[in-house]
Amino acid sequence: MAEISPIPQPPAVPFLGNTNLIDTHVPLHSFELLAQQYGEIYKLVFIGGRTTVIVNSHALVRQCSDDTRFVKTIGATLKQVRNLAGDGLFTAYGVEPNWGIAHRLLMPAFSTLNVRTMYEGMLDICDQLLLKWERFGSETIDPAEDFTRLTFDTIALCSMSHRFNSFYSMEMPKFIQQMTDFLTQSNSRAYRPGILQSLPLFGNGSYEEDIKDMKEAAREIIRNRREHPTEKRDLLSLMLGSKDPVTGEFLSEDAIIKNLLTFLIAGHETTSGMLTFATYFLLKNPDKLRKLREELDEKLGPDDGEEISLEQLGECEYLVAVMRETLRLSPTATARGVEPIEDTIIVGGDGDPANPANKHFMVKKGQGIIIQEYIQMRDHRIWGEDADSFRPERMMGGAFEKLPPAAWQPFGFGARACIGRPFAWQEAQLVLASIFRRFDISFTDPSYNLVIKQALTIKPKDMHLHVKLRPASAAAADAAARRRKHSKITLGTEATKETEGGGDGHGGQKMYVLYGSNTGTCEAFAQRVATDAHAHGFHATLATLDSKVSQLPTDGPVVIITASFEGEPADNAVHFVHWLESCPPDDKSLFKDVQYIVFGCGNREWANTYQRIPKLVDAALSSRGATCLLERGEGDAGAANFFSVFDEYEAKMWEVLSKQYGTSASQGSAEPSFKVEVVDVGTARAKLLRQPDADMAQVVVNKLLTRPGTPEKRHIKIKLPVGMNYRAGDYLAILPTNPLEIVKRVLAHFGLSAEEQLSIKSEGPTTFPVDRPITVFNILSGYVELSQPASTRDIATLLEHATDEESKAYLTKASENHEETILTKRISVIDILEDHKDINLPFSSYLQMVPPMRVRQYSISSSPLAHPGHLSLTVSILEAPALSGHVTHSGDPAKFYGVASNFLAHLAPGNRLAVVVRPSNASFHLPNDPSVPIVMFCAGSGLAPFRAFIEERAAQKASGREVGKMLLFFGCRAPDVDYLYSDSDLKVWADSGVVDIRPAFSRSDHQACSGCKYVQDRVLKDSQDISTLYRAGAKFYTCGSRRVANGIKEACITILKQNRPTEDAREIFDRVQKERFASDVFD
């Protein structure tokens, strides 16, 4: 017989034994140190002479997990938990009859099949977490607290159909707080002398009060169920109405209360910890996070508001590996207790009794043993030299299945293993997939390293996160698109569903018009193509590019109209572009049956990235076997002939498509494809006004910033809808209505009453409401652009309806000299109609000519740190004499009104408007490190994003954080005219040292501008300060018109020439632009 080795023990002190070695706040730390000192096994003596053996190696744990030799015991902490949960499933002794009854009744209820029926409830609570993070992610998130809310609410809803509504309040619900305090106290009491438990010390009084309150709350849940029974067969129903199949007994109400409380303890505590640890490990290992994201993107697709299905989760192998590895490194229940049924010998080392190097230890019947799961699952014998590293790959490829018995057991083992494992696993899969699919998550403190807090379980301590919605990149669509999908108003820049032609028949060759659009221009072009399709013998489907990821159609031509935004795809084209890039290059069979056309929109101001995305899409399709039917078209949004270029390209496109597919206009319906008829005269206008919905914001403040009598600039504060958030530097997109003045002009020309009602029918896809009554006023004010310059195609249509030779001559000249005659004077269709009354254009034709209303984007001028749930805009109101010199029917000189700016200008506090936050270019945000200095160049309302930047830094400084120097170059007319916020916010921030302002006044020689007329002049004058900050690693930003941006660029190049005369200054500037110079240029 092998020699029995003594179990080592640290030196003890009288009365206390080894109790003084245990940190009562985080006992795990003490056990880790003792394991390092004493190895695979040791014993401790606690107060009263109780001896406990602690085992740390896999070999010993495997032997102690043999149900024929060992049974579960209730350790010191669980004995304290029994003060609340008694003989509930988790804390019962094995010999207690209620454990057997409850186990037999409830074990089937937690089968994998039954847990699947609880998925809907899990989705419900998970969505509440997601909505909270969407709204408050820019603030500091405590994931341990939020995951506690989530898991608590989930187990309550799924097991007893009760809602605690934890996410409905910023404060933790009383019941949850009491339970958290109870578990913390129970852990501390486990290591205190018993005599201290009865004294009014250490929170004993509140401990007893919490127990009383929680039992009463459980009793009330049961009472409510008895009074209001439900057909739902949840766990509470099972406990109330089921007999034990063995004894024939029902559970007593006392036993039901104890098990109900057990569910709430065990059902939330461990899972919330696991979710928090998984988040920590993923953030500390970006390569693993990237792998997880790639899998979620592939298996789940874009976050378009569709629920994640259980079948999709089942395909996420890497997600499962992440969860397994998380529980290996940080099992939230770090230890469990067993005792031998009889005297027995356990073998150390590798556990082989025949290996002479292994020690043998005797443990007596009834000897308490603590299995340190936290330590044994890092055993280097099993997990290798990198056992302390987070490596999910070790759980894949069949490796997990080949692990030795008991090597991975975070849910306990044997008959007393956690019966709720399928529930916890399903819930954790859903939550982890949801948050990492939807959000970009980062530590508030990038240097954070794991600190543990311990109650009944362990969790990361003081771990705080910043959370923001992921850009529409390889993973998820903007969450605002998800909300819009379910709202009653859909903003015109996002199609979440395909739109097909309507009407009684869908005759014609199929075609697909796909667009990528942020500002609405590409969508408007795509809408025009889809509308015109019917007339050319095609039946069009209109959709976003993202909707066709992995499924490009082959049964008709694919027309792609997409934009580049500083070299990046539009928000609703990101997934599509990433998918194309990830497809095997030069695989000619991939798209061999796809026939396509690409038209690209861009801005030549961004020479290095002009048309990058359209070029990329064209090249990617062509190199992978698709057939290009027409050479890619290009439109420069900054050019005067932008719309005319598209008109010409579209005409060529129809020629090519008609020839390729053998279609003609006769293949369409013989009836007109677009008809308008009057069905009522002003009797139901109110019913058709827009309804407030999830995307409806509310104006709080609208005040004038400039001196009366000068061009208006306004500060507009807006209360956002719940769940919509933003970052400093982002845009707010608004859906405006046309100025009343131009709507009246159109009504007058066509002799229509604003109250008249129309019914619109269309054979093709359209942005108009179809087949229902709507007032003429609503159509003209909200659905179409009335002020856009007439295109060459518009002029051709007008020419067809002109009867006077003078009008025909004018229109012919306008067509031949379009830019000079029309574009530079911004002459609209209604301008031409008012000047040439012989043009007998039907109203339906007019509606088809004018483009659909598009959203406008404005830079947000506030920080969410200062105004959570609110934002502000700083807007220039455009109202000026029309460049055309046109005179209206009334004889008054026509004015040009900016559509969106005038819409905003006339909103009063309390008015509502449809909005959505749009992220700006990734580089146009503040550095994550607030100590990085920044230099900002702007003029006029270009101040908007920089006001947001300054406000954010001011809030950070007020909170005690170190902030870098901010240098603002701001151009305006005069200090008493339009020096925005100079007597309010900017003054306060400048006085507090947050920002250094360098103004330039174009119409004043005020001393503050140091004689500088324009921003670029001030930049050159203060070049030394700019150079100093450049050398200090500053980041640079420009916001303003193209003219302002070009002037600043040239000034910066001049400074570079002065500082580095032997080098190519323009080349240096181009490099700086790529690395740390962000611009937001508008016209």
From TrEMBL:
Annotated GO MF terms: aromatase activity; flavin adenine dinucleotide binding; FMN binding; heme binding; iron ion binding; NADPH-hemoprotein reductase activity
Q: Which co-factors does it depend on?
A: FAD; heme; FMN
Binding of heme, residues: C418
Entries under Pfam families matching the protein: FAD_binding_1, Flavodoxin_1, NAD_binding_1, p450
- Is the keyword Membrane assigned to this protein? no
Q: Alphabetically list the UniProt keywords.
A: FAD, Flavoprotein, FMN, Heme, Iron, Metal-binding, Monooxygenase, NADP, Oxidoreductase, Transport
What transmembrane ranges does the database entry give? none
Where in this chain does the record put each FAD-binding FR-type domain?
Answer: 692-927
Q: Which InterPro entries match?
A: Bifunctional_P450_P450_red, CysJ-like_FAD-binding, Cyt_P450, Cyt_P450_CS, Cyt_P450_E_grp-I, Cyt_P450_sf, FAD-bd_FR_type, Flavodoxin/NO_synth
The Gene Ontology CC terms held by the record are:
cytosol
Keyword NADP, does the record have it?
yes
Signal peptide (from-to): none
* Flavodoxin-like domain residues: 511-654
Q: Which PROSITE patterns match?
A: CYTOCHROME_P450, FAD_FR, FLAVODOXIN_LIKE
Q: What is stated as this protein's family in its record?
A: In the N-terminal section; belongs to the cytochrome P450 family.
Q: What is this protein called?
A: Fatty acid hydroxylase
Organism of origin is Schizopora paradoxa
Lineage per the UniProt record = Eukaryota, Fungi, Dikarya, Basidiomycota, Agaricomycotina
